[in-house]
Amino acid sequence: MHAFDILGDPVRRRILELLADGEQAAGAVSEVVRAEFGISPPAVSQHLRVLRESGFVTVRPDGTRRLYAVEAAPLREVDIWLDRFRQFWSQRLDALATELARGKRERRAQRDNGGDTDGDPRRGTASVSEEDT
């Protein structure tokens, strides 16, 4: 199975999200997934099996429990494949970062000036000029 076939299923993606926080028992994963998706315990087990057989998770016995953990290698392969597409969103993310920084600077300047951003000490808020509208 191709990595995107594995990741295309919302139940398997959710299982990986749960395991991203660290190793978890199959029962704990099953409880969350069953509650969120309304599927049976055997269905959850099947999804765990698909993830295990495709190499996305590892399992180890711990007494009577089976502990599952994310395996990084298949996710790195997905990341490498996605790398050629990052150009499509990285420029937009850079622009967003610039706007967020600008907003922080403006709020800081407003706070430091006591809310006076237009130079008029009688006002506590910035005025809107014709250029701003």
TrEMBL record:
<dbReference type="InterPro" id="IPR011991">
    <property type="entry name" value="ArsR-like_HTH"/>
</dbReference>
<keyword id="KW-0804">Transcription</keyword>
<feature type="domain" description="HTH arsR-type">
    <location>
        <begin position="1"/>
        <end position="90"/>
    </location>
</feature>
<keyword id="KW-0805">Transcription regulation</keyword>
<keyword id="KW-0238">DNA-binding</keyword>
<dbReference type="InterPro" id="IPR001845">
    <property type="entry name" value="HTH_ArsR_DNA-bd_dom"/>
</dbReference>
<dbReference type="InterPro" id="IPR036390">
    <property type="entry name" value="WH_DNA-bd_sf"/>
</dbReference>
<protein>
    <submittedName>
        <fullName>Winged helix-turn-helix transcriptional regulator</fullName>
    </submittedName>
</protein>
<feature type="compositionally biased region" description="Basic and acidic residues">
    <location>
        <begin position="109"/>
        <end position="123"/>
    </location>
</feature>
<dbReference type="InterPro" id="IPR051081">
    <property type="entry name" value="HTH_MetalResp_TranReg"/>
</dbReference>
<dbReference type="Pfam" id="PF12840">
    <property type="entry name" value="HTH_20"/>
</dbReference>
<dbReference type="InterPro" id="IPR036388">
    <property type="entry name" value="WH-like_DNA-bd_sf"/>
</dbReference>
<feature type="region of interest" description="Disordered">
    <location>
        <begin position="101"/>
        <end position="133"/>
    </location>
</feature>
